[in-house]
Design a protein that fits this description.
By secondary structure, the chain is α/β, with parallel strands linked by helices. The protein contains eight helices and 22 strands. Helix content is 20%, strand content 33%.
């Protein structure tokens, strides 16, 4: 039987674990522990330079510890911070964001982290993805595993989604891998079935006025209702196809837009590049304020949505190609570049293209501080200085960190 050890937790790491030190000096990572706590733990991974452990008992609890709201917390891999009150979550995220930029990015003189507090720390997601159990129950994956389990509750989706999903019953169907629900304007709902099988499913839905779309390996099939959903942010509506990305926290998307427009100092003589433009969320609010706006997006579905969402503007262009390809081959002479890449970040070739464009100002919207820090190192070495750093808390109760960093050319 593995013995237990008692450890004082020093801080939190990106990924949600508490970090302490064993008596031999090695760091140990402990999920669900809070800085300052004395905890009893059991080692589950013992390496020469570090160890991982599971929390057995909290011997001295932090004053910031609260009772988790969800019965599935620690079983489910979706939430990581329900044991901490919300102000402590924000403080932890701001500290981690800064530390990543210092440690990985090598940046010095980092400005103070401004925090965009979520108006709702629960019931904020407009899009939720379920995995199916073997008997067709909706569920999530277990923490540190890809094994699904059936759920009884979840406190992250918006109320309308939470009222609907328990009523959905799906008989086990070959090839169905995931099931998603997306909530749009006027409480319109879309059920998305992600399938490895290209053949249309024999699927019916009774007494539920929602759209149903099957996403196959290459094509999509509308099984009920519409082929898209309409999302609304700051009074503007957006067509969003099932494969297109859209911010999952509508209120915080609005916060982000206000922040961008306030910090970019837009004027009607400017040229702006919106890299990874998606369905045009940022572009739609920037286009009326500038001379020329250029969107760059690789996804064909998102490009189709973008074209419809920004059809009214004469000063907007869209390039359907990879960011590195467009930025490396066309000189747009931009004044401002906005980048909102996926979790993997920009990457070396895309940053080389951005540096070649020579814009005076950059805005980097990131959902991963580690890849932001990696990219920040290259951006800084390319002649830009970090001027402003803001945490927009898009994902309360989780370790995920959304941020906006603003850069100026030296």
């Amino acid at each position: 039987m593995t013995s237990t050890v008692d450890v004082r937790i020093d801080n939190l790491t990106y990924g949600g674990d508490g970090l302490g030190r064993l008596v031999d000096g090695r760091v140990v990572f402990v999920p669900y522990a809070i800085p300052g706590e004395l905890v009893r733990l059991k080692l589950v991974e013992d390496k020469p330079r570090f160890a991982r452990a599971e929390l057995v008992e909290v011997l001295e609890a932090s004053a910031d510890r609260v009772i988790p709201r969800c019965q599935h917390f620690t079983t489910c891999g979706g939430c990581h911070y329900q044991q901490m009150n919300y102000p402590t979550q924000l403080k932890a995220k701001a500290t981690i964001l800064r530390e990543q930029l210092e440690r990985i990015g090598g940046l010095k003189d980092i400005p103070g982290v401004e925090v965009g507090v979520a108006s709702d720390s629960w019931y904020y997601r407009n899009h939720i993805q379920f995995h199916l159990t073997q008997d067709g129950k909706l569920g999530f994956q277990r923490a540190h595993s890809n094994q699904p389990f059936a759920i009884q509750e979840c406190h992250l989706p918006e109320v309308a989604i939470n009222q609907l999903w328990p009523r959905i019953e799906i008989e086990p169907m070959p090839g169905v891998e995931r099931v998603s629900l997306r909530l749009g304007a006027d409480e319109d709902m879309m059920l998305i079935l992600e399938c490895s099988n290209p053949q249309p499913l024999d699927f019916s839905i009774e007494d539920l006025a929602i759209s149903v779309v099957q996403l196959g390996p290459s094509d999509s099939v509308v099984l009920a209702g519409s082929d898209h959903i309409v999302m609304e942010v700051s009074g503007r509506r957006f067509k969003v196809s099932p494969r297109s990305f859209f911010q999952v926290n509508t209120n915080q998307a609005q916060t982000m837009l206000k922040h961008l427009t306030a910090h970019l100092f837009l004027s009607e003589n400017l040229t702006v590049l919106d890299v990874y433009s998606g369905v045009g969320l940022y572009s739609a609010f920037l286009a009326p304020k500038v001379k020329r706006l250029v969107g760059i997006e690789f996804s064909p579905d998102a490009c189709e949505d973008f074209s419809i969402n920004l059809d009214e503007f004469e000063n907007v262009e869209l390039y359907e190609a990879s960011a590195e390809q467009v930025l490396g081959s066309i000189d747009f002479k931009p004044d401002i570049i906005i980048m909102d890449p996926p979790r993997a970040g920009l990457g070396r070739l895309t940053i080389e293209g951005i540096l070649t464009q020579g814009a005076e100002r950059l805005a980097y919207v990131s959902c991963d501080p580690a890849t932001l820090a990696r990219d920040a190192k290259q951006i800084a070495s390319g002649g830009y200085s970090l001027k402003d750093l803001t945490l927009i808390d898009m994902f309360p109760q989780t370790y995920h960190i959304e941020s906006i960093s603003y850069w100026e050319k030296l």
